[in-house]
User: Which sequence fits this backbone?
């Protein structure tokens, strides 16, 4: 993502504080659209940072290639017009609005080309609480919108949203907390003026696959043991700039007595997409026998092995091509939506999403997310 060069005409709408405005509970709404990436035109990214004890910030990035640029009356240049608005609730079960606001952006296409429009909205939030933001991004020219629900965790000073992760070169927020190997990034943590160091726990990227749904073996809790531990020092501005050469998971902690902290992921450069032929084989473990899977792994020509697998199981090229596209779209979507302690496709939700596809209905409350297939 290149640094934002063009000047945005921004009009901030006054934040509305309303304790009497009522709306439908989020917990009663079907949120399956949140994981239906291919059906949406806009795919904004969001990140929350707690700037002070009473204020938090919602950072956003919008892909300019997904926007419609048009000429306005009296304007010879093409421009995109976008509004980003939010409504804040105390929980998924609450229908009482605690805060709301919006920002308007107009991007002139005659300026230097950029890949994304970046901005920030500040909202009221205090410790120790948790909230839910309902965020609507609207492309005014196309009349297309994207609705997102973002959890705001301000339950303590050591929770992930108290840390800010940025690209060291551009200063832009790392929205998915993912970096490439040897990429320079900066971690900021200023919630304790006496804090001099952060502890970092490193985990190798070799987590086991989830147990398939048909398995009858007893489940045991995943034991996350770090492969190494080290410390990094904060400067006087409470920042530390780093780069990591090894793939894996890096967990930054401000308090070693709790597991809270922020996690940085170092996966393949093209993650969450699958760019190399050898990356196509591991996700096939969900639909292969052990013998089939071992044969795929041991075949020196990975691309040919994958092509033959789909062709042999689908019967002809057209069906194989269609099945391959559906399957690997699900794998990449799982990486986008469910990356946690591991790549998204390796998680429990990733397994179910890949095997069965998008649920018919998804409902969330403060403690659970329920997936329903069928009626």
Assistant:
């Amino acid at each position: 993502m290149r640094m934002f060069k063009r000047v945005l005409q921004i009009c901030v709408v006054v934040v509305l504080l309303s304790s009497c405005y009522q709306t439908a509970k989020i917990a009663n709404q079907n949120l399956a659209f949140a994981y239906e990436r291919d059906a949406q035109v806009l795919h904004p990214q969001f990140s929350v940072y707690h700037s002070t004890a009473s204020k938090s910030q919602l950072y956003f990035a919008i892909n300019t290639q997904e926007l419609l640029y048009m000429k306005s009356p009296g304007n010879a240049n093409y421009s995109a017009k976008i509004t980003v608005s939010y409504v804040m609730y105390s929980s998924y079960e609450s229908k009482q609005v605690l805060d709301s606001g919006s920002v308007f952006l107009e991007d002139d296409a005659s300026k230097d080309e950029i890949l994304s429009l970046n901005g920030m909205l500040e909202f009221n939030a205090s410790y120790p609480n948790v909230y839910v933001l309902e965020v609507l991004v609207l492309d005014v020219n196309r009349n297309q919108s994207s609705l997102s629900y973002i959890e705001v965790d301000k339950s303590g000073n050591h929770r992930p949203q108290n840390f800010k992760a940025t690209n060291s070169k551009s200063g832009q927020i790392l929205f998915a907390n993912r970096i490439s190997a040897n990429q320079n990034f900066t971690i900021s943590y200023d919630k304790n003026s006496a804090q001099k160091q952060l502890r970092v726990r490193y985990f190798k990227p070799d987590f086991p696959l989830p147990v398939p749904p048909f398995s009858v073996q007893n489940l045991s809790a995943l034991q996350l043991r770090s492969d190494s531990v080290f410390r990094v020092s904060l400067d006087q501005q409470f920042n530390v700039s780093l780069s990591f050469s090894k793939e894996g998971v890096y967990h930054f902690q401000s308090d070693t007595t709790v597991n809270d902290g922020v996690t940085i992921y170092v996966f393949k450069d093209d993650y969450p997409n699958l760019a190399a032929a050898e990356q196509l084989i591991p996700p096939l473990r969900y639909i292969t026998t052990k013998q089939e899977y071992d044969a795929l792994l041991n075949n020196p020509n990975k691309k040919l092995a994958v092509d033959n697998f789909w062709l042999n199981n689908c019967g002809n090229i057209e069906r194989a091509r269609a099945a391959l596209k559906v399957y690997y779209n699900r794998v990449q979507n799982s990486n986008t939506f469910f990356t946690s302690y591991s790549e998204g496709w390796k998680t429990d939700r990733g397994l179910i999403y890949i095997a069965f596809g998008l649920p018919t209905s998804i409902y969330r409350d403060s403690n659970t997310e329920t997936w329903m297939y069928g009626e």
